[in-house]
Design goal:
39% helix, 5-stranded parallel β-sheet, alpha/beta, 3-stranded antiparallel β-sheet, Rossmann fold
Length: 358
Amino acid sequence: MVISTINPSQINTKVVYFGHLLKSLIKDELNQYLNNIIYVENFKHYFDNEPLLSLPDVIIIEADENDDCFDQIDYIRNHPFLRGLIIILLGIRDDKAMRKAAMELHVDDYYYYPFQTAHLIERINFLVKFKLIRPTLVDLTDRFDQRYKIPIQKRIFDVVVSGLSLFVLSPLFLLIGLIIKLESKGTVLYKSQRVGAGYKIFDFYKFRSMCNDADKLIDTISDLNQYQTTPGCKQFKSTFVKFKNDPRITKFGSFLRKTSIDELPQLFNILIGDMSLVGNRPLPLYEAENLTTNEWSTRFLGPAGLTGLWQISRRGKEEMSELERKELDNFYSKNYSIFLDIEIIVKTFTALIQKEEV
């Protein structure tokens, strides 16, 4: 007789259970020991929509009558954020070939029914204590750094172009700075924190095109957000924020925005390596924090950029939905190349003049 030393109230490990054959037999006992267990019906849907900072510690997968079992294990072990999860397989038959295949995919353990649930819980508790599981913000950055490295030819191109551009445009920068100072009080450059590749947070520079207290007025004009699907409803907040006919923009600021001249100070961000010439736009913190599910975090596996697919496709148009913009970002992160970058740069020049003030 095995006497369990587990105190059910002390097991706060987050566990996800996927399967149906054994669930009805052991569910009551699992619920007795685990305070935080989730039973999911759709494996992919769950992980696509689960925020990165609330990922489970352990996933229990039933192997029998699960044709996708090894694909699911492979998906976890090759995913930049899920690879550290503890994986335990449950089966109803002792299949040595399946066990060998599972262990080659680095499954943490494999149990065959009947087994004592207390033993399974003890094993989970041990694995959690001796293995780093849950990603922190620092962990996320480290994992992204391991996955995303800017190609050397892209970095050389960025440094050469941004350096020469800053030198040639320096007289224009001085003229723009003078006009901004004459028109309104405040600094010439607007600086804000943005999130780029690998969730890296950096200071992002633009020519100031708004009144000096623009950030304090953002809540008062939320109805103007072109991505807000339910105008006037603060309960359903969109990920992206982009205002039509923003009343905070100054007269000269309107010109800077229509010509995209306000973006030129980001050449300095490119020179020092915060961004690239082409990539996904770095996002404000309040937008980036809404894109931490596995499905949409893919955009951060590619470079942050001065211009990108969004700019050349449908920038400023009302019919550009939030979903479309997310999909464009993910597409670029998965498919960017020097040839695609050159195509985007060429097309950017034809998209500089915008019809709407956004």
